[in-house]
Amino acid sequence: MSFLLKRLAGLAVVLLVASFLVYGLLYLVPGGPMAFLLGNRSGTPEQVAAIRAQYRLDDPFLLRYLSWLGDALTGDFGSSLVYRQEVAALIGSRVATTVLLVGYATVLISAGGIAMGLLAGLRGGRLDTAIGVLSSLFLATPPFVVGVLLAIVFSVGLGWFPVFGPGEGLLDRLYHLTLPAITLSLASAAFLARITRASVREELNREHVETARARGFGERHIVRRHVLRNASIPVVTVTGLNIAGLIAGSVVVENIFALDGLGSLFVRAILQRDFAIVQAVVLVLVTAFVLINLLVDLCYSALDPRLSR
Predict the structure, then answer these.
(1) What domain range includes position 257?
(2) Residue 157 sits in a domain of what CATH number?
(3) What does the pLDDT read at residue 125?
(4) Is the pLDDT reported for residue 27 higher than 60?
């Protein structure tokens, strides 16, 4: 319990600092927030006054930050200047697409990466070489190139999958998100496969494994009881980092496949200088990143209780 409380306290501090940076960095734009909000428009005195009132720009900076943070904690991120809607509603209507995309890609990464790594580490030989070459190819190919190639082959050429849009309903959405999820997961799955292979090979050569073999235990028992558990800690680390990286990678993939998720909303908000949406989306993504790190820490303590001391 003390381990969990320490982690929660640390993550609360990280989120507080992150929220301050998210709110404050946009005020470092040359000309201040008004230059960011107005863009190339001059704005009438009435419009300028309305914007200053909406964002409380006449108040001291710290007071503005605390007011914004208090509203954000209740789910109120203000209103969008471009869409004329509540930012929370805009995020809520798009977050499901991003969550499904990241979740789908996570399943592909975990299943594919760990399976390939185990096969390469336990079998060796030509299979190990083939998986190594394949993982190198996946790691060397940028996601936008993979996305375009998959769309050309499986959408335009074979017609197996749709090219654009998130679909409707769970099954239809998963069908529409198959190519984007593969695009998002290939490089991460290849990296996870390498880490899994290296961890398994290292554990296979440890002294306690040799001792278990000398005592006559079967290879399956040795792998299950002595290799997989000890090799899982670096695998969990890389998996957690990959999932966190998927949140950032989804920005590119959503734009390739015209998915109306948080990534595409974020890009449009930057281009349109929509102040409130940029702040809200960054804060949501940082929060998700922090929560994933917390889950990784909890997995550590479950795999090896000594790490929670």
Answers:
(1) 94-308
(2) 1.10.3720.10
(3) 74
(4) yes
